[in-house]
Sequence to fold (307 residues):
Amino acid sequence: MILLLVLGGLMVAVAIMLVAMATRTTKEATGVSRSIAALEAMNDMPKELTAEFDRPFAERVLEPLQGRLLKIGRRFSGADSSERIYRKLELAGNPPGWNVDRVVALKVVGAVAGLAGSFLFSFMLDLSVFNRIMFVAAGTVVGFFGPNLYLYQKGYDRQAQLQRDLPDAIDLLTISVESGLAFDAAVQQVSRNTEGPLSEEFSRVLREMQIGQGRAAALRGLAERTNLDDLRSFVGALVQADAFGIPIAEVLRVQSHEMRTKRRQRAEEKAQQVPVKMTIPLIFCILPTLFVAVLGPAAITIMDNLG
Fold:
């Protein structure tokens, strides 16, 4: 009898344990199922709801910020600021990633950066209130016009390099035409065998002619993208030769000789400017040290004798 009671109690305990384990397994399976269902629901969401999160950071944040900065910059810029900035970009060679809207936005960023930097730096200089205000105002103005100054310097350097490379390029163009190549093929040879901004400009002229633009219009566009008188006179001579049927080889020969003459004259002009430019450092830097070295011992001897 006692054995039967013990066996019955064990069976009851085993049954309770099995029921508890089944209940826990069901709960765990239900929790996992819910998680899987939630993940599937997120994956099955309409693309219209997830498109905002799938966009790159630049499109979600940087482009709206640039739009707001552009509105602020246009308020402080003049009515013709877009044309002037576009002209500077053309002279600078259209740097990658730079356009009119981005330059206007960068002007606002530069103004804020100049304001913050000059304000913090003014505490290091221990300036008065008025001088601090003027210093912060100057820093803000410099930051606002910083992108314009960068474009001006880049355009100046590019035009100077164009002027240096132009005589050699015209010589190569003349040799190519006189050897029997057509003008378009000669321009292609110059663009392939040279480097720098002039090669890029000739390549652009070729691309414009390949898409259907006339030779005269493409050459005029080359002259408008620069501010060099030599290049404009060269383009004008080529356009007139094309219009009146004058042999281009003869025009190129004359232009090549003229460019070499102008380059030699510019070199002579800079050589004549050297003595004048050396006067200032000679007076303020070299002569004082020479006087100290030569007259210093004599001055010390005179002072000792007088003492």
In short: The chain is about 85% helix and 0% strand.
